[in-house]
Write a structure and sequence with these properties.
Elements lengths: L1 H21 L4 H18 L13 H30 L8 E6 L5 H13 L3 E7 L2 E6 L7 H20 L1
Antiparallel strand pairs: 1-3, 2-3
Helix pairs in contact: 1-2, 3-5, 4-5
């Protein structure tokens, strides 16, 4: 039963993603989306769906919407910060690797955290090892684990914890 649930959740998320990206409900596009989503869902059930470990509670749904807003805000802030660095004549870089800790237990939650960090300009998740993430940071504010965790991880983690645990 668990595999069937994984297949259905992955199929549904892939199909919705396909339909949103294609921007049309033409029958040929929908049929290709159904076929592709079915093949991928059967091959990778339980491994790819962001819904696989999602807590289906009202607070988790609210957290998901808030997470999208928070991510958008952080994306804009990070883009402006990187643009400020690049356009500055002094090019004030302080690149380096930092080690941060996550409280997330869910594989999907950790993967979303790592991807959110990577998609935010100026940071790149290089490795995940248990509760530790190793991140390349264009402008290291502090090499200390607690400070780097607060600066990079805490905001995302707040919402992801409500969604995935």
């Amino acid at each position: 039963m668990d595999r069937a649930r994984g297949v259905i959740l992955l199929f549904a998320s892939l199909l919705v993603f396909w339909l949103v990206l294609s921007g049309t409900a033409a029958s040929d596009v929908v049929l290709v989306g159904i076929a592709a989503a079915a093949v991928i869902a059967m091959a990778f059930a339980g491994n790819l769906s962001f819904l696989a470990e999602f807590r289906a509670t009202p607070s988790a749904v609210v957290a998901a919407f808030l997470y999208v807003g928070y991510f958008a805000k952080e994306l804009v802030k990070a883009n402006l910060a990187v643009a400020r660095i690049v356009t500055s004549p002094a090019l004030p870089l302080n690149p380096g690797f930092v080690k941060v800790r996550t409280r997330l237990k869910s594989r999907v939650g950790r993967a979303l955290l790592a991807n959110s960090i990577t998609l935010t300009p100026g940071t790149l998740t290089v490795e995940m090892e248990g509760e530790w993430l190793y991140i390349h940071w264009v402008s290291v504010e502090s090499p200390e684990v607690e400070a780097a965790t607060a600066a990079i991880v805490a905001g995302f983690e707040h919402y992801l914890e409500a969604m995935y645990g």
